[in-house]
Write a structure and sequence with these properties.
Layout: H1 21-24, H2 30-47, E1 53-57, H3 69-86, E2 97-100, H4 106-116, E3 121-126, E4 143-146, H5 149-159, E5 160-165, H6 170-184, E6 193-197, H7 199-205, H8 208-213, E7 226-228, H9 231-245
Parallel strand pairs: 1-2, 1-5, 2-3, 3-4, 5-6, 6-7
């Protein structure tokens, strides 16, 4: 019977916890996976000096040559206009960077327009059974893949100064009404401009006037968003509202919710 040499381990040395793939992929490590989807984008945004964004939402199914292809073309044009305008802000940080969900359709059009204007552009992609894959027009250092929808939504809201919402389906509606709810309930510690692009589509799909009529929202809630039908009119709204926002002091750290100090201090 052979004996172990003095000082030699009797059992294999276990891997370090942060290198243990079996542990990292298991249910006990879910909090680590969640926080990594906060910290990894944060480190990229800091290195790339991204200060704030303009987020484009819209259907992944609207292609350039589809029946709704004009929306694709308009999203591309508007994103280029936004990026060109953002370059006039000569600062150390990058202002009003075009951000999308990183996939095809309207998302691709937005990233493509920003690239047309030779600007940085962000893609917050998420793994889905169909449709969703990163498009070819995202800045390499600003392309992200998320597993958790709520962490992806956090990054949409955290840096956004404006949303431009093109026609879309369940995902677009979910993203739009999430932000509208945060604004309505004053859970955003900043001003944010919301533009619904394609007034005919939005008036047909969502009967906002009926919500007011039945008292489920107030008449003032209709002021939370604007309608636009051309890239030029949308750009004018963005330029006017964002310029106005510049006069309002921001919190020291961007935040998506207010914090209340004890005893009102």
């Amino acid at each position: 019977m052979s004996e172990s040499k003095p000082g030699s381990p009797r059992v294999p040395r276990p891997p370090l916890a942060y290198k243990n793939e079996e542990f990292l992929k298991g249910p006990d490590s879910r909090p680590l996976r969640i926080i990594s989807e906060y910290l990894e984008p944060l480190s990229h945004f800091r290195r790339q000096r991204i200060r704030d964004t303009i987020v484009f939402f819209g259907s992944a199914r609207i292609k350039e040559d589809s029946p709704l292809g004009q929306y694709y073309k308009d999203a591309r044009t508007l994103a280029a206009m936004v990026t060109t305008w953002a370059k006039t802000f000569r600062e150390r940080t990058y202002r009003y960077v075009v951000c999308s969900g990183g996939g095809p359709g309207i998302m691709e059009a937005a990233n493509r327009g920003a690239m047309d204007a030779h600007g940085k552009t962000i893609g917050l992609n998420i793994g889905l059974p169909f449709e969703q894959f990163p498009n070819d027009y995202i800045t390499n250092e600003l392309s992200f893949e998320f597993h958790y929808f709520f962490m992806r939504k956090f990054w949409f809201a955290y840096l956004a100064k404006a949303l431009v919402v093109f026609p879309g389906g369940f995902g677009t509606m979910d993203e739009l009404f999430e932000i509208l709810t945060l604004v309505q309930t004053k859970k955003l510690a900043k001003k944010i401009t919301i533009i619904l692009y394609g007034s005919a589509f939005w008036h047909e799909i969502v009967n906002f006037d009926a919500l007011v009529k039945y008292g489920t929202i107030s008449a003032d809630d209709m002021k939370l968003f604007h309608f636009a039908d051309t890239p030029e009119s949308a750009m004018e709204i963005l330029r006017e509202t964002l310029t106005e926002q510049e006069t309002v002091p921001e919190p020291e750290v961007p935040a998506i919710s207010h914090t209340t100090k004890p005893d009102g201090q």
